[in-house]
Design brief:
By secondary structure, the chain is mainly α. About 55% of the residues lie in helices and about 0% in strands.
Length: about 300
């Protein structure tokens, strides 16, 4: 977005208005820029609502929201309002933590997206889980936070996985039953057809991605779970989605030496021309090449014959 011009003396006055909770001075200093209270005077100050979360009393934040501040607006810097509120928090039970709970409540009441993404692609629930704040976890869940929302970069964790990593057992216990994504992934890997069927009946997204960008079909194929692969194919799973190194379910089956699973996928119509990328051994290699590398010349020939 374009940042409006503001001189250094004005920045000092505006900062003081923020700290003192002086809404009228803030408005008089920034209103001429237009779109108050959603203007961004410069990169130092950013959006008034986010700056207020870091520097102002709650009364000023309430006034900004009442004046029309966007509860999801930010400068694409990883800190939209809810994430900003989460990241200024102190340890559980501290005065700063109480302020965080208050700010989160105000922002949610003002219409903030409870699943907004921020730094590390984490949602507010990720932050609450990582901080071990069970009360805030419950508040966010009650407001519609999605416990199955995984980060889309780095380790692609769910809030449950973050809580577990940080040793917050009470939070992990609260989130585990809600994190059905993990049940789905484990069922695919283990070839648990009964669980897969039951979850599909309950509306499970058949092509949902795990923490590494793989689908259930990819996990089942790589593990050699022929019956599970057959079920997922019959239920309409995408045959040609690719994950890390641009590998498809067929390619993963070929790499792992699961001849029958790979043949099943070929018969189902999997794309035989997809090539891997990135890592040596995968880059430029299709399923037949990967089968050859794995020592299964029969499978490689079968794939090539079907491609022709």
């Amino acid at each position: 977005m374009t940042h409006s011009p503001i001189d250094r003396a004005a920045i000092v006055r505006v900062h003081r208005a923020f700290v003192e909770g002086d809404f009228e001075t803030l408005r008089s200093e920034l209103e001429y820029l237009g779109d108050f209270p959603n203007t961004a005077p410069d990169l130092t100050l950013g959006r008034p609502l986010v700056y207020a979360i870091y520097h102002s009393p709650a009364t000023l934040i309430a006034q900004l929201l009442a004046a029309g501040a966007d509860p999801d607006g930010h400068l694409d810097d990883g800190y939209p309002p809810l994430i900003a509120a989460m990241t200024v928090a102190g340890p559980a039970g501290s005065p700063a933590r109480a302020r965080t709970a208050e700010l989160v409540g105000m922002l949610l009441a003002g219409g903030a997206d409870v699943n907004q993404r921020g730094i590390n692609d984490y949602s507010p629930l990720h932050h609450a889980a990582a901080q071990g704040d069970l009360g805030l976890v419950d508040r966010l869940l009650e407001s519609g936070a999605d416990p199955n929302l995984a980060a889309r970069i780095d380790d692609m964790e769910t809030p449950f996985e973050l809580a577990l990593q940080q040793g917050h057992v009470d939070v992990a216990n609260r989130l585990q039953p809600l994190t059905t994504r993990l049940d789905w992934e484990q069922a695919a890997k283990n070839g648990d057809v009964q669980t897969l069927r039951a979850m599909l009946r309950r509306g499970q997204n058949i092509d949902a991605l795990d923490g590494f960008g793989s689908t259930a079909l990819m996990r089942a194929a790589h593990a050699g779970r022929e019956e599970a692969v057959g079920l997922l194919v019959a239920e309409g799973a995408s045959l040609d989605r690719t994950a890390k190194f641009h590998l498809s379910a067929l390619m993963l089956a070929a790499i792992a030496g699961h001849h029958r699973v790979a043949r099943l996928l070929v018969r189902a119509g999997a794309d035989l021309t997809i090539q891997g990328s990135g890592a040596p051994g995968f880059a430029g290699q299709d399923a037949a090449d990967l089968a050859e590398q794995a020592g299964d010349s029969r499978l490689a020939a079968y794939i090539r014959n079907n491609r022709a």
